[in-house]
Amino acid sequence: MRHNKKFNHLGRTASHRNAMLSNMACSLIKHKRITTTVAKAKALKKFVEPLITKSKNDTTNSRRVVFSNLQDKFVVTELFKEISVKIADRPGGYTRIIKTGNRLGDNAEMCFIELVDYNENMAKEKVVKKSTRTRRSKKVVAAQDEAPVAVGAADTIAELAEETKPESTGETVE
After folding, report:
1. Alpha helices in 80-167 (DSSP H)
2. I need a surface site. Which of 2, 27, 41, 109 has the fewest CB within 10 A?
3. In the chain, pLDDT over 90 holds for what percent of residues?
4. Measured between alpha carbons, how far is 25 from 68 in angstroms, rounded to an integer?
């Protein structure tokens, strides 16, 4: 009978599953985001979040426990030096799973799993990129010059009007 055996075996033996989860956790810590199937991502989340919690307390014993699960000293160093500093005030939920659709070959559900504090796209402060050149017609710029403009925006409209004016060569056309 299968009573009280709740975790997903992922179609692998115990040793293969532990090695796979260890390798995926190392990749997640190194690259901060990996692409995998939803079932593996859920299993990885249960595997890696206790290790990240353990890394908040930087003691010899916690390093040994994390190293026994990950087997990569560079990853353990990065986890304890960089990641634990960023997640020090977070009480849990260090990873995020974002579904991306189905895989082309076998139609398996695919997803990203990423560390929450390392995603620049979902950060609270968005960086607005200003372009130096724009393609605007002279009619649009002239209409904006006639319209009432806020105090700070007058300089940018004047700069855009100068950029769109054709440069004169100094020769007169007869």
Report:
1. 84-86, 138-146, 153-164
2. 2
3. 63
4. 13
- The single-letter DSSP state of residue 8 is -
Check whether 102 has a pLDDT greater than 80.
Answer: yes
108: which residues sit within 8 A by CB, 6+ positions away? Answer: 37, 102
CATH class of 14-118: alpha beta
Residues ≥6 apart with Cβ < 8 Å to 114: 28, 32, 33, 34, 95, 96, 98
What distance in Å separates the CA atoms of residue 104 and residue 136, rounded to the nearest whole number?
A: 42
Q: List the helix and strand counts (H, then E) for the chain.
A: 7, 3
Residue 74 has pLDDT above 60, yes or no: yes
> Do 114 and 38 touch, CB atoms closer than 8 A?
no
Domain boundaries, the chain: 14-118, 130-165
> In this structure, are residues 17 and 10 in contact, taking their beta carbons and an 8 Å threshold?
yes
For residues 122 and 80, the model is more confident at 80
Q: What is the pLDDT of residues 10-30, one digit of tens each?
A: 999 999 999 999 999 999 999
For residues 145 and 128, the answer to whether their CB atoms sit within 8 Å is no
Judging by beta carbons within 10 Å of its beta carbon (0-12, 13-18, 19+), is residue 97 exposed, middle or buried? middle
